[in-house]
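Morning, I've got a small favour to ask if you have a moment. I owe you a coffee for this, so here goes:

…
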Amino acid sequence: MQSHKYYEIKDGQIERIKQSCPRCGDGVFLAEHHDRRSCGKCGYTEFKRKKKE
């Protein structure tokens, strides 16, 4: 696993880059797709809203 893709260091503190799954808790991240975020473990999905022009 390439953990450097999920965390970054700012001002001496570690911050998460990706959002965690609300069902599974910390340590399980949501995958970023162009129209949604989804959890590979439990199947939780959040759809992104389209911008109105």
User: Anything to note?
Assistant: The CA atoms of residues 23 and 44 lie 7 Å apart. Residues 3-47 form one domain.
